[in-house]
Amino acid sequence: MKLIVGLGNPGPAYEKTRHNVGAMVADSLVSSYGESFSVHKRSGALTATVRIGGEPVMVAKARTYMNVTGRQIGPLAAYYSVSPDELIVLHDELDIDFGAVRLKQGGGEGGHNGLRSISQTVGTRDYLRVRLGIGRPPGRQDPADFVLKPFPSAAKAEVELLVANGVDAAELLVKQGLEAAQNVVHAW
C-alpha cells in the first residue's frame, strides 16, 4: 500500500500557515474522494484510505508538531511495511517559487524539520516528495517566522491553485510513477 503524508502542525493556529500546505493538500485529497480522517490506533496519526487509479492509498497527517512528525509516521509506515518508493511526503518548500510544484525522490531535508524527523524514523531520505513552493521570505525575514505565518489573504486564489495542483501531482505520482509524473507536473 502506498502512504501519502501531508506535513503540518496541529491546531487552528497553524492550519492556514505556509508550513501547513502539505496538510492542506492531504485534506483536499481525502475530501475529494468523499472520505474523512480518523485516528489510527497503532500510530496515533490521522489516516484515511482512498482509491487512486483503483489502488488503495493511505493518506496520513501526524497529530504531533512538525519537528516530531516521524514519531507517528515512522510507526505507521512500519506497520504497513511501506517501502521508501511507496512513501510520498507532501511538504512546503522555501526554495521553490510560490505556487510551483516539483516532484523528486530522496535528497536532503534543506532545514525542514518535518522531513528530518521522517527520515530519522523511516531510516532513509530516499522517499518520494511532492514539494509545494511557498517561496523565500521577503527581505531579511527569518524563514522560521515566515513559514509559521498565514498566507496573505490576497493570495487566496493562488493558494487554492497550489493545493489543487498538489492533489493532482500526488495522484499522478501514484498512477504513473515518478518520471512520468515529473514530465507532466514540471511542465505546469
TrEMBL record:
Reactions catalysed, as given in the entry: an N-acyl-L-alpha-aminoacyl-tRNA + H2O = an N-acyl-L-amino acid + a tRNA + H(+)
Keywords: Cytoplasm, Hydrolase, RNA-binding, tRNA-binding
Gene Ontology cellular-component annotations: cytoplasm
Discriminates between blocked and unblocked aminoacyl-tRNA, annotated site positions: N9
Record-annotated active site: H19 (proton acceptor)
Site, Stabilizes the basic form of H active site to accept a proton: residue positions: D92
First-tier enzyme category under EC: hydrolase
MF terms (GO), sorted A to Z: peptidyl-tRNA hydrolase activity; tRNA binding
Transmembrane segments annotated in the record for this chain: none
Binding site for tRNA: Y14, Y65, N67, N113
Record keyword Nucleotide-binding present: no
UniProt GO BP: protein quality control for misfolded or incompletely synthesized proteins; rescue of stalled ribosome
Subunit: Monomer.
Function description: Hydrolyzes ribosome-free peptidyl-tRNAs (with 1 or more amino acids incorporated), which drop off the ribosome during protein synthesis, or as a result of ribosome stalling.
Entry's family note: Belongs to the PTH family.
Annotated protein name in UniProt: Peptidyl-tRNA hydrolase
